[in-house]
């Protein structure tokens, strides 16, 4: 865990950098009113979801120890944070827009998630998920019962070594270790989170178009929403991967027996992945907090060709 | 990319499913939608237009019966490989003109007056 503490300043810098790079699209006061309304609703809902997720995750992290002193409840905090973002997105998209009016138009198109999927976000989420599942699978495969018989909480080794010419049985155990004791509830939580992610992506794509005159802007808005969904899931995955990898790395200790080549490689890899995951989770959380937004100018823009812009200063 | 659009006027005496059917048939007949092109899912188009899913489903059913599209479970609705003979722009316009005059009649406007409104709008 020391490595995670050392990575904290880098995580903070990553968050600040992500917030500082916020992207804003500026619109005129009367432009794309329906899309602006959708953007406000979806953003408000997502921010509320994020705040709710942060609050619930904080409560779990702090009070979870009272329910389960061995950290199984507290370990779910990042997943709960991600779930808050996803739920906020689903609610925002489902209540975002309803077609109305006498004349209603719609494009003849088939909207698909892959058309608005940011490849970079998807790649980071995919790699993070693979590493988390791999770490939990390795932990489950190598986990052993602890001194009180709780399966999958320790890493144990046993071997026969020669000490002063005498063959001696040697054994040691080390924990906490991300074996089945932690992996089962975590994988169950992430299965639910995966379904929630799919539901959120579907909600983003299925949200009705607010008008055919704003197709491009609406597509941009959907791309931002899909990015936020992937970021919510990524924060949950990387936020869980960091401690899992840290405990995997520290738990894999062979003592006098040594480790197999595969275990040694996993130990080294997990030692690198843990701080990277923490910094990554912090950066993605920063990106999520500073999500791109639409800003509406409070004064009308001067029309092209105007000699002077009376009442609407050029900025 | 320019997307084709369909429009439904809820005050038009022509039922929404028929308005949709005409426009989609025109798009297929005039080649804007090519054989194999996928039509929007029923729920998506219904939500975009604020219509009941049954209305759009009826449009698709009628288009399928007329041979314009093919529906396949899990594969969506696609333009048929050999849709009916192309609708000429002239015929499509005549259809639209007929719909316009029907609407005028419902509003109690005579044919002559409807034509003069059209001329006035064109002159603007």
3D structure, described in words:
The complex is a heterodimer of chains A (315) and B (124). Chain A has 315 residues and is mainly alpha-helical. Chain A is built from seven helices and six strands. Chain A has one domain. Chain A has helices at 2-20, 33-67, 77-94, 119-142, 180-206, 215-251, 261-289, and strands at 24-27, 103-107, 143-144, 154-163, 166-174, 293-296. In chain A, a hairpin with a 2-residue loop joins β4 and β5. Chain A starts with a helix and ends in a 19-residue tail after the last strand. Chain B has 124 residues and is mostly helical. In chain B, strands 2-3 form a two-stranded antiparallel ribbon. Chain B has five helices and three strands; from the N terminus they run βαααββαα. Classes of the chains: A mainly alpha (315), B mainly alpha (124). The A-B interface holds A 98-100, 102-111, 206-209, 212, 215 and B 3-11, 24, 27, 33, 38-41, 43-45, 47-51, 76. β2 (103-107) of chain A pairs antiparallel with β1 (5-9) of chain B.
Write the layout of secondary structure elements.
The complex is a heterodimer of chains A (315) and B (124).
Chain A: H1 2-20, E1 24-27, H2 33-67, H3 77-94, E2 103-107, H4 119-142, E3 143-144, E4 154-163, E5 166-174, H5 180-206, H6 215-251, H7 261-289, E6 293-296
Helix pairs in contact in A: 1-7, 2-3, 3-5, 3-6, 4-5, 4-6, 5-6, 6-7
Chain B: E1 5-9, H1 16-29, H2 42-49, H3 53-65, E2 69-72, E3 76-79, H4 89-106, H5 111-123
Antiparallel strand pairs in B: 2-3
Helix pairs in contact in B: 1-3, 2-3
Overview features:
heterodimer, A: 315 residues, mainly alpha, 3-stranded antiparallel sheet, two-stranded parallel sheet, 60% helix, 11% strand, B: 124 residues, Arc Repressor Mutant, subunit A, 2 domains, two-stranded antiparallel ribbon, 3 strands, 53% helix, globular
Q: Percentage of helical residues of chain A?
A: 55-70%
The percent of residues in helical segments of chain B reads: 40-55%
Q: What is the H-and-E element order of chain B?
A: EHHHEEHH
| Biggest sheet: strand arrangement of chain A | 3-4-5
How many structural domains of chain B? 2
List the strand order in the largest sheet of chain B: 2-3
The CATH class designation of the largest domain in chain B is Mainly Alpha
What is Rg of chain B? 16 Å
Which structural category do the helix and sheet elements of chain B fall into?
mainly alpha
Largest sheet of chain B: 2 strands, antiparallel
Mean pLDDT of chain B: 88
Largest sheet of chain A: 3 strands, antiparallel
Distance between the termini of chain A: 51 Å
Gyration radius of chain A, rounded? 25 Å
Shape of chain B: globular
How many individual helices of chain A?
Answer: 7
């Amino acid at each position: 865990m020391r490595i995670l503490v050392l990575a904290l300043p880098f995580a903070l810098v990553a968050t600040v950098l992500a917030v500082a790079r916020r992207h804003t699209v500026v619109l005129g006061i009367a432009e794309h009113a329906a899309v602006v309304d959708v953007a406000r609703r979806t953003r408000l809902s997502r921010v509320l979801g994020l705040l709710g997720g942060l609050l619930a995750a904080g409560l779990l992290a702090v009070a979870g120890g009272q329910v389960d002193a061995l950290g199984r409840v507290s370990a779910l905090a990042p997943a709960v944070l991600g779930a808050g973002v996803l739920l906020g997105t689903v609610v925002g998209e489902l209540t975002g827009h309803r077609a109305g009016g006498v004349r209603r138009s719609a494009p003849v198109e088939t909207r698909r998630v892959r058309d608005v999927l940011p490849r970079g976000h998807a790649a980071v989420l995919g790699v993070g998920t693979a590493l988390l599942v791999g770490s939990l699978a390795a932990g489950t495969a190598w986990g052993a019962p602890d001194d009180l018989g709780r399966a999958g909480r320790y890493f144990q080794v046993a071997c026969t070594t020669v000490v002063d010419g005498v063959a001696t049985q040697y054994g040691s155990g080390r924990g906490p270790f991300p074996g089945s004791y932690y992996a089962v509830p975590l994988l169950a939580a992430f299965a639910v989170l995966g379904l929630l992610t799919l539901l959120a992506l579907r909600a983003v794509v299925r949200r009705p178009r607010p008008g055919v005159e704003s197709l491009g802007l609406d597509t941009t808005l959907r791309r931002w929403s899909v990015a936020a969904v992937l970021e919510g899931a990524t924060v949950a995955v990387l936020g869980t991967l960091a401690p899992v990898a840290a405990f995997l790395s520290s738990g894999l200790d062979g003592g006098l027996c040594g480790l197999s080549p595969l275990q040694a490689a996993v130990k080294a890899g997990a030692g690198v992945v843990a701080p990277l995951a923490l910094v990554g989770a912090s950066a993605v959380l920063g990106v999520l907090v500073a999500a791109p937004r639409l800003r509406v100018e409070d004064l009308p823009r001067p029309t092209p060709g105007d000699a002077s812009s009376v009442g609407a200063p050029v900025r | 990319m320019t997307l084709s659009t369909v429009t439904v006027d809820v005050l038009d005496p022509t039922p929404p499913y028929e308005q949709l059917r005409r426009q989609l048939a025109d798009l297929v007949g005039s080649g804007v939608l090519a054989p194999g092109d996928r039509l929007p899912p029923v729920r998506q188009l219904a939500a975009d237009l604020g219509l009941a899913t049954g209305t759009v489903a009826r449009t698709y059913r009628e288009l399928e019966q007329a041979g314009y599209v093919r529906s396949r479970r899990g594969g969506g609705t696609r333009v048929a490989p050999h849709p009916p003979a192309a609708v000429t722009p002239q015929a499509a316009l005549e259809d639209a003109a007929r719909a316009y005059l029907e609407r005028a009649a419902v509003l109690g406007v005579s044919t002559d007056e409807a034509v003069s409104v059209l001329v006035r709008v064109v002159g603007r």
